[in-house]
Amino acid sequence: MTNSLTQTATRAVGIDLEEGMDLLRRMILIRRFEERAAQLRASGLIPGFLHPCSGQEAVAVGVCAALGENDVLTSTHRGHGHLIGRGADPARMYAELFARSTGYNAGKGGSLHMIDAELGFLGANGIVGGGIPLATGAALQLKRTGSGAVAVTFFGDGASNEGAFHESLNLAALWKLPVLFVCENNLYGEFTRQNEHMLLENVADRASAYGLPGVVVDGNDVLAVRQVAAEAADRARNGMGPTLIEAKTYRHKGHFEGDMARYRPKEEVESWMKRDPLVLFPNVLRDELGATEESLEALRQEVEERLSRDIEWAKEQEHPSPEDALQHVYVDSYNGRALR
Ligand SMILES: Cc1ncc(C[n+]2csc(CCOP(=O)(O)OP(=O)(O)O)c2C)c(N)n1
């Protein structure tokens, strides 16, 4: 049984037009960042895999909008949206994709491993479920130091089958850790539909086995996600422990860039495309907050120009030198203590 805090989708409740436009700007930035990255990869500029999150933008932006600057996050192999949602610099993200030394991981990590410690972004992670125990450990430290901050971890429906997920939920519930477990349920784990890898319909139902609340939310409704995340963060900050949030959403593209996704029924794709968060939210802004068509178009244009500048900057950056391969292999000190 899902122990629900909030299940209803909000409309334009509790925001003004400027705030709403900010949320939309960030969602468009994520979508266009990835669409342009896909073009750049096709033209040979980006080595390695890209796992696009098109369709899932409202989860990243909604959750990040509910957080404070001291909160920390971990992400997944599908992490571009989480980084941009948190305010990372797209120029440095492109530099990382182009394997340049000014990129987020000095050009050595690529799409799957971006970190921005200044933003409290403790890392995207190529290991499915790998970020879950990291965020749980971070939450333990946040609690011990009485920081009042929370940790958030994003993961997929597939990752909720991993042992690390179950161990983390158990300990986090037991120790009342300030952590938000955010499952982006996009219906597929790689090429396997949810009903072929688990019997439950709701990942959120797994929460009750560990004694914490599980909440299902419409993952394509940015305001509903923001509200649920804000409530869960509030509980966590007040010593009431973790929440499992399941945001039901859909990835528009294949598992990775280049996957034609023929395993998905056409009707399923079409019905979810009608619920594209980048269609739903502009409608809310127009119908309820009076956004004009011109202002929405100006926003799209602004994002486009910004990304063009970011890409040009990233293209001009240097590649790491061969000697740089020997840097960042070991940590030299911890809290000022030499380790070697
Ligand atoms: C521990 C581990 N097992 C398997 C893989 C291979 N793998 C990469 S992505 C993926 C599917 C993950 O599905 P889900 O957690 O639902 O995330 P989504 O891709 O849907 O965002 C798998 C099995 C991996 N990277 N790590």
Descriptive overview:
By secondary structure, the chain is of the alpha/beta class. It contains eleven helices and nine strands. It has a five-stranded parallel β-sheet, sandwiched between helices. A two-stranded antiparallel sheet has the order 4-5. α6 links the parallel β2 and β3 (179-185). The model is unreliable at 1-10 (pLDDT under 50). Residues 76-78, 126-128, 155-159, 186, 188-190, 255 line the site of thiamine diphosphate.
List the helices and strands and how they pair.
Blueprint: H1 17-42, H2 57-65, E1 72-74, H3 80-86, H4 90-97, H5 131-144, E2 151-156, H6 163-174, E3 179-185, E4 188-189, E5 192-193, H7 194-197, E6 214-218, H8 222-237, E7 243-248, H9 266-273, H10 277-289, H11 293-316, E8 333-334, E9 337-338
Parallel strand pairs: 1-2, 2-3, 3-7, 6-7
Antiparallel strand pairs: 4-5, 8-9
Helix pairs in contact: 1-2, 1-3, 1-10, 1-11, 2-3, 2-8, 4-11, 5-6
Bound molecules: thiamine diphosphate.
Residues 76-78, 126-128, 155-159, 186, 188-190, 255 line the site of thiamine diphosphate.
Report the sheet with the most strands, covering strand number, pairing sense and barrel closure: 5 strands, parallel
End-to-end C-alpha gap: 51 Å
Q: What's the pLDDT, averaged over the residues?
A: 94
Evaluate the radius of gyration.
Answer: 20 Å
Q: Beta fraction of the residues?
A: 5-15%
| Global shape | globular
Structural class: alpha/beta
Q: How many DSSP helices? A: 11
Number of strands: 9
Helix/strand order: HHEHHHEHEEEHEHEHHHEE
Ranges where pLDDT stays below 50 over 5 or more residues in a row are 1-10
Tell me which ligands are bound: thiamine diphosphate
Strand order of the largest sheet: 1-2-3-7-6
Report the helical percentage.
40-55%
